[in-house]
Amino acid sequence: MVKAVVGANWGDEGKGKITDMLGKEADIIVRFQGGANAGHTIVNDYGKFALHTLPSGVFYDHTTSVIGNGVALNIPTLMEEIKGIVDQGVPMPKIKVSDRVQMVMSYHILFDQYEEERLAGKSFGSTKSGIAPFYSDKYAKIGFQVSELFDENALREKVERICETKNVVLEHLYHKDPIRPEDIFEELMNYKEMIAPYVCDVSAFLWNAIKEGKEILLEGQLGSLKDPDHGIYPMVTSSSTLAAYGAIGAGIPPYEIKKIITVCKAYSSAVGAGAFVSEIFGEEADELRRRGGDGGEYGATTGRPRRMGWFDCVASKYGCRIQGTTDVAFTVLDVLGYLEEIPVCVGYEIDGEVTMDFPTTSKLQKAKPVMEVLPGWNCDIRGIRKYEDLPENCRKYIEFVEEKIEFPITMISNGPGRNDIIYR
Ligand code: GDP
């Protein structure tokens, strides 16, 4: 069976933990989109890890980790990540990389930086890892696919052609030094050497695995609201964050994705710019940020402090719907244990009207949160394993959210560890 683990919100919902946990029963874990611009934080018996490119299954010796064609593959980062986990005592994982995945080039990273400099204050809050220039090139059909590394003559020609166009922009828009075809070719040959042992026809591999009845997990990066089509455009990422894209980014039939587990955090956080209706500020936000996640709400890749807010029923309901959710995993609930009262956003007021429907960006910018305050449970719920053992107000909070978002919460995460989970 194929299951997807995806985010309902702006990312950082705790997908890494849920994937790691479900990975116990999985044979194969697949990354299908995104690049090294975001990360998952995973806490397990080996220690604490921030993964950016590797799927969260790399810690199990029974799983194969797959990088699907939909990913923005930064090869040096992948190599560092493999080395990093092996150095910390994790057995060398089984890794397969799609022969159709495209590579993030050094100039993509440069273009990302130059564009952010050029836009100055009007930037999109890029992490400058080359993701937007990478996907632009992919769809402009001037990207490099891993399979192309193995045809050196064709590659040489293509490199010449691409340097020509890149250099026009470098010189005239950014006023920077041009890139040299021989350097780019050498870069590609280095990538070839590094990646060759892992290259595989991933869609054929997965097709066979499905036929053999293997358990496959698709692991999404970021969340619904960062999807380029259905998110808060243009403050989005450059590849689809939706479970549906899992079929494309892994190369499997869409009807094989039987379960879509949408991870939803018990409060909100976001990185980068863009409307964030239930955002809070000042001491209230600082306290939640400090207590949030596992050691505070700071970016796994960038270390940036995340923007904080209360749970947003409007955004989460939409986020779950657009994912095609079958199950909600409600995470980081333990963090709210310090509160006497918990505000929840239950509607958006836009031009004097209250709605539960998540709007497009121009309306979203005008939305004001309609809040409702629920009583807190004011105690530590870590270690609880049965739903009935949760404090009454905590169950009421979960049931309130479930009613508002209209999708079943079947898993509740009350701590960062693999076993901190309550099935319902
Ligand atoms: P991802 O990108 O969706 O995987 O999210 P992150 O890597 O940002 O994960 C969120 C953080 O919360 C990580 O530091 C996790 O270890 C931590 N985390 C996940 N689930 C829980 C939970 O239920 N409780 C607490 N306290 N921390 C959690």
Automatic annotation (TrEMBL):
One of its GO terms (molecular function) is adenylosuccinate synthase activity. GTP binds at residues 11-17, 39-41, 306, 332-334, 413-415. SUPFAM superfamilies: P-loop containing nucleoside triphosphate hydrolases. IMP binds at D12, E13, G14, K15, N37, A38, G39, H40, T127, K141, T237, R304. The active site is at D12, H40. It comes from the Bacteria. Keywords: Cytoplasm, GTP-binding, Ligase, Magnesium, Metal-binding, Nucleotide-binding, Purine biosynthesis. Signal peptide: none annotated. It catalyses: IMP + L-aspartate + GTP = N(6)-(1,2-dicarboxyethyl)-AMP + GDP + phosphate + 2 H(+). InterPro entries: Adenylosuccinate_synth_dom1, Adenylosuccinate_synth_dom2, Adenylosuccinate_synth_dom3, Adenylosuccinate_synthetase, P-loop_NTPase. Its cofactor is Mg(2+). Mg(2+) binds at D12, G39. Its main location: cytoplasm. NCBIfam families: PRK01117.1 (NF002223), purA (TIGR00184). HAMAP family: Adenylosucc_synth. Plays an important role in the de novo pathway of purine nucleotide biosynthesis. Catalyzes the first committed step in the biosynthesis of AMP from IMP. Belongs to the adenylosuccinate synthetase family. This is Adenylosuccinate synthetase. It comes from Ruminococcus gauvreauii.
